[in-house]
Specification:
There is one protein chain. This protein has about 210 residues and is α+β, with helices and mostly antiparallel strands. The chain has three helices and eight strands. A four-stranded antiparallel beta sheet has the order 1-2-3-6, with no helix packed on it. It has a four-stranded antiparallel beta sheet with strand order 5-4-7-8. The radius of gyration is 35 Å and the shape is elongated. The C terminus is likely disordered.
Length: about 210
């Protein structure tokens, strides 16, 4: 018996391994509808991720159109300066926000200008405008005055969307201004649009990838 004791441990291990393989023999058979079956679709068609994943979600489709754009405002013709001189001329910027939410449509324009000349010195005021290139309609954003070296700001809000406008510009106006039409244009900038921006009448344009409705 003392000689057989060293052989009992290897024999016991062999018996245990045999029982394990015998118990799992039917798991991989084609007749067993187990999840680990070699004929299971989960093994033949693994889960795909990334661009190969099958999904009904299209990131181009949104609930409603939203615009949040930054526009640089510059003179129609930028002045020329001699070499070594600091380019000192009127400039500005605008942030345009528009939402076509059916529950809460809104539009907002934030204007900021510099180096326009102080209104107290020039006696002039400035007026912001949104311009629609197709119809030629210009919407006034209000009149503002400049201080210091010609710095000024204007914040305009509305309960309608404004993404159909193409340009934003600033005009010189007398103060007080009794003429409702625009004066000489001082600064202007084009409002950037998305490539898949849709027309209100049709709902889709040829600029949209695959005529995806938004």
């Amino acid at each position: 018996m003392a000689r057989l004791k060293p052989l009992l441990i290897p024999l016991t291990l062999l018996l245990l391994v045999g029982f394990v393989f015998a118990g799992t023999e039917n798991i991989f058979s084609s007749s067993t509808p187990a999840i680990f079956s070699e004929n299971s679709p989960s093994l033949e068609q693994p889960v795909k991720y990334g661009q190969y994943r099958s999904t009904h979600y299209d990131p181009r489709v949104i609930n409603y159109y939203r615009l949040n754009a930054f526009v640089s405002l510059n003179p129609i013709e930028e002045p020329m300066f001699e070499r070594g001189m600091h380019p000192f001329y009127p400039r500005g910027s605008a942030r345009i926000i528009s939402s076509r939410s059916p529950l809460l449509p809104k539009g907002q324009v934030q204007l900021s200008v510099k180096d326009m000349g102080s209104s107290s010195r020039t006696g002039l005021a400035y007026e912001g405008w949104l311009f629609d290139e197709q119809s030629g309609y210009a919407l006034s954003l209000g009149v503002f005055r400049t201080i210091g070296f010609g710095n000024g700001e204007l914040d305009w809000r509305t309960s309608q969307y404004i993404d159909e406008f193409d340009y934003i510009f600033i005009t010189e106006e007398p103060y007080p201004d009794y003429d409702p039409t625009p004066g000489p244009v001082v600064l202007q900038g084009r409002i950037p649009k998305r490539d898949y921006f849709y027309e209100r009448e049709f709902g889709a344009t040829d600029k949209m990838y695959g005529y995806t409705l938004t």
